[in-house]
Amino acid sequence: MPIPNYPNGPNPKAIVYKAGHYDGKREMAMDQFKEWIKQFDVDKDGRISRDELKEAIRSTRAWFPGWKANRGVKAADANGDGFIDDSEITALMEFAEKNLSIKIMP
Ligand SMILES: [Ca+2]
Ligand SMILES: [Ca+2]
């Protein structure tokens, strides 16, 4: 998997997440969160489905990933289509902060 290029040059602390793996890090920047969540977009449609969110939550070793995925989609899915798209990821971050012990750095 290629290491993403960052506009500020190579960042040795850049975290390359692999789908299904979670290094236990509990802090990430907004961009890192987006990179991370997009690794779970297995059908590459640019949106996160409930099942994809479930795998993301499972990778954090949080409890009740299916239940939390349901709640996460409900919390973030503003237009009610059942998927989290780019414009809804901010709301998903808030959900992750409250429910997945992930701290989003500004
Ligand atoms: Ca998807
Ligand atoms: Ca949506």
Question: Descriptors for this entry?
Answer:
single chain; 106 residues; mainly alpha; two-stranded parallel sheet; 4 helices; 2 strands; 40% helix; 6% strand; globular; binds calcium ion; EF_hand_dom; EF-hand domain-containing protein; Centrin_CML-like; calcium ion binding
What does this entry show, briefly?
By secondary structure, this protein is mainly alpha-helical. 40% of the residues lie in helices and 6% in strands. The longest helix has 12 residues, at 65-76.
Can you offer a commentary on this structure?
This protein is mainly alpha-helical and 106 residues long. 40% of the residues lie in helices and 6% in strands. The termini are far apart. It binds calcium ion (CA) (2 copies). Residues 41, 43, 45, 47-49, 52 line the site of one calcium ion (CA).
Multimer state: single chain
* Average predicted confidence as pLDDT: 84
What's the number of helices? 4
What ligand molecules are bound, each kind once? calcium ion
**Numbering strands along the chain, what is their spatial order in the largest sheet?**
1-2
**Overall shape:** globular
The arrangement of helices and strands along the chain is EHHHHE
**What is the rounded distance between the termini?**
26 Å
Number of strands: 2
Query: Could you describe the largest sheet, including whether it forms a barrel?
Result: 2 strands, parallel
Approximate strand percentage? 5-15%
Helix content: 25-40%
Class by helix and strand content? mainly alpha
The Cα radius of gyration reads 13 Å
Q: What are the segments in which pLDDT stays under 50 over at least 5 consecutive residues?
A: 9-21
